[in-house]
Design goal:
The strands form two sheets. Strands 3-2-1-4-5-6-9 form a seven-stranded parallel beta sheet, with helices on both faces. It is globular, with a radius of gyration of 16 Å. It is α/β, with parallel strands linked by helices. The chain has one domain: NAD(P)-binding Rossmann-like Domain (Rossmann fold, 3-Layer(aba) Sandwich). The protein has eight helices and nine strands. Helix 1 packs across helix 6, helix 3 packs parallel to helix 4 and helix 6 packs across helix 7.
Amino acid sequence: MPTALVAGATGLVGRQLVRLLAGDDDYERVIVVARRPLDPAPDRVEQRIFPFERLHDNRRHLKADHVFCALGTTRKDAGSRDRFRQVDVELTRLIAHLSREHGARHFSLVSAIGASASSPFFYNRVKAEAEQAVRDAGFPSGAILRPSVLGGHREGRPMEHLARLLMRAAPARWRTIDAADVARAAIVIARTETPGWQVLESDRIRELARHHPGHDAGH
């Protein structure tokens, strides 16, 4: 049975990934790499807590078969564009390359709708750079998930709450999507280990989420 590793476990999608993987008997172990411990942490979850600046020194903890990366911050929390890029791109790049060196076969990255190197928006350009960074790590199988605005509550993000309200009636590609569905789709696609890279937007994410055995129970 494969081992799963989750980076970004304290975010909306990351918390759902940990919850679902911890209850998934198809995975032998679930490893969480984080700067602070989950409280509470589900049973079967092995937490590896250290500053991300020490990630290279702790690379032995990145040994897994399937890697799920849901890292992300905001410019406000990061404090600067450089710090924002360091978390979203450089830290993601390091996790991808180190886990691949330790034999990981599949990498799932939670990106964002609109990610593009030619975007006029800094956020979207950074997300595109992170996507390219994981593609360059040499995984035989990978998925890039580009959800629209995530459903769920995050402290200190009033504009995100407004966007969720406005997008309820939007086309499927742009409509608010449940963070749990993003996690479900990531797990479904990881299990297949389909060769090459797949890019999944919200409509496809919803479709895949329905194939997760916990979908009906979670709705």
